[in-house]
Please model this.
Amino acid sequence: MDYNTDSYTPPHLAQIRLRIFPTMASHTISPLIYGINAFKMKDEDFAELSQAINPTVVRWGGNATSRYNWENDFYNTGSDYYYENIPYENPDRSQLPNNSGADRFVQRNKAAGIESLITVPIIGCVAKAKPADDPNPLGHPYNCGFKVCKYGEQKLTDPFDRNCGNGIRLDSSLITGNDLTDTSIKVDPDFVYHWVKHLVGQFSDASNGGVRFYGLDNEPGIWRDSHRDVFPGYLSYELLLQRNIDYAAAIRQADPNAQILGPVQDGWTRYFYSSYGSYPDATAQADRDAHNGEAFVAWYLDQLYAHDQQSGQRTIDYFDLHYYPQAAGVALSSDSGYSTNLLPLWALRLRSTRSLWDASYVDESWIKNTEEGNTAVQLIPRMRAWVNDHYPGLKLAISEYNWGGLDGMNGALAQADVLGIFGREDVGLATLWQPPTADQPGAFAFRMYQNYDGQGSKFGDISIPATSADQGQLAMYAAQRSNDGALTLMIINKSDQALSANIDLSGFELGDFEEKKSAQYYRYSATDLHSIVEQPYLPISHGAINVEFGAKSINLLIVPFPNDFFPNPSPDPGEEQ
Model:
């Protein structure tokens, strides 16, 4: 049976067996997997969302942060919007560099008890401010990378400023040889050192409530596109490695206790090449061939390990890659409502979460046709193997990901599945790109793990091995809560029909315990997209819980146990103690 085709319809499953194995090896679930990106989210929207979902870490990241200037509070939009220098919204610029957008981002997070992840620019330049005597120093016309008055007519221009173009001539050729100083000033690691020192001065150091995490820029493998007005050339293996080493050293000097993430590559192709334009890319292939054909991130980790062994200091603490499912219509898309013609996309989105872990899942996208695509993506095991083989002890981070559909139930199901996978597979940190609004279904997927009762109650923090007889239809993730010993089970019915399940607790020596206990039950489903509904308690009978889970639903069961019921997990040598 081909499970990768849109025509596949699962047989009716009278009962799916779910099993939990409390005596098998367990691990602590990092609380940092429940993170989001919120570079320019308005304060009122952030307050509403954070109160609803309790994010644990918020990232200041994205293309615009690659050239953010902390001294003047300007950033450059890059290819996202006509390479324009934009001032960060700031009610009082007279205090700069204090009270910058970045400062207020960190302060907002601290006030909510949330960790901050700050992206630092290593591209080599940052946005400059307009002269103080400019008639409109904070507005149009902005400084921009390809001014029509200087470089000629272009295919597209900013409708609000026709002098700012997209850098593509009318004949579709790229404008080259433009002047970097039109928008930017050159900087070196000292610029980042002083920024981190400023943040330490404002908020203390990483071990005392200051900024705990720093990312080494954003998706450097696509600078040649996203910031080609200042970085038009090819980013080689050596250059990206050296930038990571030099800028990480500046961060360490300014705050030795900070945690650093790298290389922050954007996706599948840039895992294997430091940069890549279009297929085939002779320059990228020549660079890889010059490094004995080794995948970029494997070579990068090898070189960092050798460097760090000699220096006695780690360059990075987290091996960080971005990942977006590449199947058409999945990532960064709207749910668009449930209808018959969208069923193939719904099924595809829910299947594609398997690319995070499943060695048998062949990616349903262009990836399967690439040189590396004859094997499964299995992203997290692949990342862990790279670390184990090339730099043991690093933690794993995925600081950008998005499965789309967060405005509907299909996306909520996928998001709940992804969070369960991150916990089970021992990811150290993850931040969702383009998070939902507080009232969208995608937010309820987070709430089922972080705030299911509206009182801050959470899914367990110690992952317990568990299996489902059909993970593709009824996915299950199990954990223990260390504060009260409760067993928590997240069960996601991805199908269009109600499914009956037998939750086998025979691995637990219940004895008289089961006669006294039942399981709390919370459900979020397509029948009510506006609330998580507490259900009647479920009895434990003959070492099992038998229950029917409604179609398209996220279900949380809480089974109370004493704190000493489970064995303590072995500490992860990569985790902070």
In short: DSSP finds 14 helices and 25 strands in the chain.
